[in-house]
Amino acid sequence: MSTTHVLGYPRIGKQRELKFALESYWRGDSSQQELLQVGKNIRQQNWQAQKDSGQAWVTVGDFAWYDQVLNTSLLLGNLPKRHQSEQINLDSMFAIARGQQGCGCNHAASDMSKWFNTNYHYIVPEFSEDSVFSLQWQQLFDEIREAFEQGHAVKPVILGPVSYLYLGKNDDQAASNFDRLSLLPQLLTVYREIFQAIADLGVEWVQVDEPILGLELDSQWQDALLAAYKTKLSPTKLLLTSYFADVLDNAEVIKQLAVDGLHLDLSAAPQQLEQVLTWLPEAWVLSAGVINGRNVWRANLPEIIENYSSLKVRLGERLWLASSCSLLHSPLDLESETDLGDAKYRLAFAEQKLSELQILDEALNGEADALRLSRQYSAALQNLNKKNNSSLQQRISALTPAERERTLSFEQRQEIQQKSLQLPPLPTTTIGSFPQTNEIRRQRREYKAGQLSQADYDAALAQHIKDAIERQERLDLDVLVHGEAERNDMVEYFAELLDGFIASRFGWVQSYGSRCVKPAIIVDDIERAKPLTIEWSSYAQSLTNKPVKGMLTGPVTILTWSFAREDISRAQIAEQIAIALNDEVAELQQAGIQVIQIDEPAIREGMPLKRSQWDDYLNWAVSAFKLSAASAKPETQIHTHMCYSEFNDIMPAVAALDADVLTIETSRSAMSLLQAFEHFEYPNEIGPGVYDIHSPNIPSIDDIKALIDKAAQWIPLQRLWVNPDCGLKTRNWQETEAALNNMVLATKELRASFS
């Protein structure tokens, strides 16, 4: 038989049990023991599902209370300096991730960043020349013992040492010439201890993730991989694992490494297989990642069987079948979905992907029932018709270059907007969303369940929006938002209104910590059949004389944060969404909305891992954004927002978006990201985040003033806006009003100081 396995499994639970347990614990409503029990229950369910589907091992070490990179930091005893006085335990983990509360100290949360080109986040490790590593956090070993005690065959997974260094950053006190790769020898010593401890528990294989192998690494990082793996690092067998891209740029390095197997993502990069087989060492196993861990479509099992049957003969037991990457990026179980219609038969969530691996394994080993079942899969897919909208395609083809651009330059628009909006220096605003209170969520549930009438639900939404406007006016913010009480999610909301999408009920995916998102699914051509935001934006504007932003999610973000169809290109999908948004912008203007924000927090995330592929992506991504805003008149101020973005290497593309105001997430980096804007001489207006909305901590007036002063070192005051890092959906009103009050007071003090 072949060996089948997955690289990781969703850890939120079928009913998001981990989310609710974490938030209950953080509120002080439940004990640590209760939290630990929820985690144990989820692990047991996950392991049993893998065992029941015939996987060779259960994957252990993929469970995390916040994220797997933070797990690794604690395992290595690598805490940020401001947290090093704390014992390593669950509470110190949460302090690093969320900030230390109520201690009167400056224990700020660590930076979060996106996990390569996914919507999953990780806590960024921090390094300095005096960093010291030692084996500390025991969770990995405890869970290996736990899985063995339950009778499972165990394959632990651990983030490799070179990727761990690559994904980190130098802390603020690190010397300017400090190279964190100088820490590798010390780090390898601790990794050897970890691998020895794993071997002592009776483990045969360890999955060591080095996802940077999918990047176009320079010689410095390639040499680091050689230093780490040129001699045997572990007494166990090591499966060297990479995903999201091909490994061909690093092939000369990989084949020199003292490992025992290689995992390839053959869903993202099937073309690499032929070349890898020309140099794959004869003693290595090949783990073929043929089941897509990042999308929700059923695999074409007959095609995979046909493509891999000869490889099975050639490699025999050295061929393993696997998910392309961790199934963390997939929803958990399709069976609970009852509202997807025929589209359900096209889909496979994590549990169904386990079944697909089992069918492939049996079919490649000649079992007739599995071959018959795989053909049934294929027939079901072929019988489901997709619709393609020819009128939409004709409209896109007929667009002229002038219809894809704003009519005037930024300098011309800025002068018109300043006269029209009459905003003070350092205008204050928020990013869009306000707290989604329990009352809002309850009313939405009751409405969807038919327990609340349309009229009553609309009245409730109107009251929430009125309340949000009144709060902002009391705070004396300059540009207001309606608060998005009607929106469940910044992508799902639009997906429910646009043709071409379907939405699951329970298809949750972890984004970070307790934060889960439910990506929509793109099944057909996308079209705007009715207005998306006009009603509530117009209502909010009617309540105030101050400008209220119309809030839209941009085309690249809607695409990136959805499960996209795979029969047309991502560029084509983004253009379809952009046309719909273009129509919405035109109608918002007609309704009297002078400021419109088109959020693109995912534009950096959507980039390919290979730099050589960036230009093509950025060309169509920028084009889609510009098309979505092209109907804006010169007096309409277009904002956009980006999160977790390293801008240095894409500044020309950011500038090419030509948004009048760009708001970005910078507070956790203490404004250091803004250096990129100074060096590039970014021409338009910028709103760098002045406080971290992911932490419940309330920023002081002095802290906010210090960040604004720091931002002013790189951005001229006449082009500087003041705003939080991101939307405030996950905060409560008490935290929100206290933080925004300090933000407005800090801004007014600064205005007075330079007036």
Give your account of this protein's structure.
The chain has a domain at 394-432 and 476-754: Alpha-Beta Barrel (TIM Barrel), CATH 3.20.20. Helices cover 41% and strands 12% of the residues. The chain is built from 26 helices and 21 strands. It has an eight-stranded parallel sheet. It has a five-stranded parallel sheet with strand order 17-18-19-20-21. Strand 3 (112-114) and strand 4 form a beta hairpin. It is globular. Residues 426-748 form the Cobalamin-independent methionine synthase MetE C-terminal/archaeal domain. It comes from Agarivorans albus MKT 106. Keywords: Amino-acid biosynthesis, Metal-binding, Methionine biosynthesis, Methyltransferase, Repeat, Transferase, Zinc. Its cofactor is Zn(2+).
Question: Top keywords for this entry?
Answer:
755 residues; alpha/beta; five-stranded parallel sheet; 26 helices
Number of helices: 26
- From the structure provided, what is the oligomeric state, counting identical versus distinct chains? single chain
Taking the alpha carbons of the first and last residues, their distance comes to: 77 Å
The Rg value, from CA coordinates, equals: 26 Å
Give the overall silhouette: globular
Low-confidence stretches: none
Query: Averaged pLDDT, please?
Result: 92
* CATH third-tier fold name of the domain at 394-432 and 476-754: TIM Barrel
Share in helix: 40-55%
Strand proportion: 5-15%
Q: What class do helices, strands and sheet pairing give?
A: alpha/beta
**What is the β-strand count?**
21
Short description, anyone?
It comes from Agarivorans albus MKT 106. By secondary structure, the protein is α/β, with parallel strands linked by helices.
